[in-house]
Each structure stands twice: as C-alpha cells, then as structure tokens.
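Q: Here's a chain of 336 amino acids. Please give me its 3D structure as tokens.
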Amino acid sequence: MRHLQGLGVLGTEYGQVIDSYQAAHDRLAAVGPDARKPLDTEADACIAPTYNRLLHIRDTPRVARALSGRWDPAAVEEQYLANAPGVVSVDDFLTEEALEELYRFCLESTVWFGNRYAHGRLGALMQDGFSCPLLMQIAEELRDALPRLIGDRYPLRQMWGFKCGPEVPADVTTHADFAAVNVNFWITPDDANTDERSGGLVVHDVDAPLSWGFDTYNGRQDLIRPFLRRRRARSMTIPYRQNRAVIFDSDLFHASDEVRFRPGYENLRINVTRSTATARKGSTTATRRTSARRGSGRRGGRRPSHAYARSGDPGRRHIRLHRNDSSRVVAWQESG
C-alpha cells in the first residue's frame, strides 16, 4: 500500500491504515518470520476494511506479442520430449513489453492474499485476483507455441504467483503439483539478486507417488525428504535470471533454491507459474505420459535410463538451456 501511495494510486486518506499495517508487521516481525497471532488489537481494527481486499488491480491489457521470438518453441519441445524426465529452461522468455507490464501488475495489484507459507512467502491465485488480459495472453500463446507439450490436450488449470525475500533458506519448499506441465518464470530484475548462482529452482528426478494425497506431496517436508533420500534422487539446479522460464513435469518434486535478494519491496523475488490440467492419480493421461514419453526413465523404484546416469557416465544426457541460437548444459547431480 505504501508503494501504491507513492505512485499516487492511493491517496493520503490511507495514511492511518498504512501505519496500522506497519505496526502489525513490526509486532509480528519481533516474534519471528513465521509468527502467527490474531489481529485483535484496537490498532488492528483499522486494517479490517482493507485486509485481503482487492483495493487495486493494475490495468494490464494484452500486448502485440507476449512470448519472445528469441527462443525456438519446436526445439524446446524436442528437448523436453527426448530427454527424460522433462525439464527445459528458456531465457528471454517474454518480450520486453510483456515482462515490464507483468512486473508492474505484480507490484501494483493487491492480490497477494496467500500468507500460509513459511519464511514470509506470499501467494496469489487466479480466483483471488491474480488474473489480467496479459496473463491470459501468455497462457494462450504457450498453448499455441507448444502443441505437443500443452496444446488443447492440457488446458489452463491455474496460474499463480509468489513473492518472497529478502532471504529464504534452501530445501524448505520441496513439493509436486497436481498438473501435467508447469511453466515457471521469474520477473524481478537481476540486480535484486545478490547471488547469481542461486535464487532459482531445484528439480529432482523423482515423481510424487501416486498413492500420496495432495496435502502430502504438496507440502509434507517430513515425508518428502526421506522419500527422496530412499530413491537416491538426483537434482538439477537452474539459477535465477529475470525472464527465464523453466518448463517441467509437474509430478517431479521441485523447490525454490536459496533466496538472497536485496531488501526493498521492488526487490522481492517474483515467480509466475502457468499450470495445466490433468487427472493425476491412475489416469490414462499419467499412464500415457509414463509409457510413451519416458519409458523406463521414471524414478519410481526402477533403474534409471541414460537420462539419469550419474555424473561422469559418458552415456548420460543433459538438459539444455535454450537462449537465442545457443544452449548451455546442466547435468543432474546427487541430491544432498
């Protein structure tokens, strides 16, 4: 709200409300980053009319083109399908106009109501206001650009955003999603990141068990970590870069890497995810994806294919990061 007031979007009449939010923040921060207390003081009553309300949604229309022409969708699809378990990273993902407009939408829209996440992370979902014509355009262009990965087979299920920072430890957000393919991309400028080697995404080469329910595979760190150790999971770390997208199989366990960003509202790390629909458990979709695309490559207790071969094995495959006409190679590593 203070950011919006500085832009002139909110007037001086919100001064007392903003001060009350600051007081509540300071009171909770003194207890700890994951503190939870009822908002029942007299000062808290001042924020009640605005708490978790859509005070402002930035007008963010469609642009001439959302996806950048600097990457080759056909090459990305081929790399994803040819190399189990399905992870590809794409640089220069959005056009400059789309990137800037979406960043401003995330800064200026009061849609960040999801506060149940540890380490000060905030989430926003479509049904809560994380939606605008530009976001829908990005989803539509992805559907058309990646017919073999998304197309009409996997319609849009959900889009969400997360804000976090300035610091989040590594290995505290490992989970899988209820979807077929996730397209995750980052939009905060690179100069906010104090360590160019981190701040990105860690993807493990192991699926969530079909017998686990959503609440388990989406958040039970006490079960997920031992499971990954038992499966001798390997992981791939994709460092943070503004306008970098990671396209990956949603069933794979994944997590945000350690975050060390600069203080300040505009420096918060923002990621956006476009998630596709699927019937996960026991579905024909899951069966088709397992047999047709990966064969024996899944890490559900079977021996790995060459895609999972250990570092140093001459037969191992790599996942390429597509950027313009060049690509970089990232190999699977042993998980800690």
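Q: Can you summarize the key feature?
A: The domain at 73-334 is CATH 2.60.120.620 (Jelly Rolls).
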